């Protein structure tokens, strides 16, 4: 399976943005990349080695953002029961996939749901 260059660029931008948020750290549980804050995952980044389609999974509590994310081609509530808690998996290789800027907005929203108040205050101060 070849990696879609455009999707990979988006994925790299999203990863860089996520890891740039206050207190964010990358870990590799289950062999896939996740960004955590305060030991809690705020975005699942999956793998970039071409073994699985590129995508990101974010937690969207805002109904409008949640509905918007699900409107993209191939987007779906996350598996393992996470969808019930507002997690959405958004594929990056589908035609009409969201722009990196939109994905970064969703990552920030997901971060705000998970991060402690002091780190959100730090983010807002920047």
From TrEMBL:
The keyword Aminoacyl-tRNA synthetase does not apply. Pfam families: YjbR. Keywords: DNA-binding. InterPro entries: YjbR-like_sf, YjbR/MT2646/Rv2570-like. The keyword DNA-binding applies. It comes from the Bacteria. This is MmcQ/YjbR family DNA-binding protein. It comes from Streptomyces vulcanius. GO terms for molecular function: DNA binding.
């Amino acid at each position: 399976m070849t990696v879609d260059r455009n999707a990979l660029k988006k994925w790299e931008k999203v990863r860089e943005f996520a890891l740039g948020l206050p207190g964010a750290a990358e870990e590799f549980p289950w062999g896939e990349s996740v960004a955590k804050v305060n030991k809690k995952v705020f975005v699942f980044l999956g793998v970039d080695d071409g073994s699985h389609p590129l995508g990101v999974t974010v937690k969207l509590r805002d109904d409008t953002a949640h509905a918007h994310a699900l409107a993209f081609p191939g987007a779906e509530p996350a598996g393992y029961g996470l969808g019930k808690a507002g997690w959405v998996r958004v594929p990056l290789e589908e035609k009409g996939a969201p722009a990196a800027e939109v994905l970064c907005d969703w990552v920030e929203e997901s971060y705000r749901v998970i991060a402690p108040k002091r780190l959100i205050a730090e983010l807002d101060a920047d």
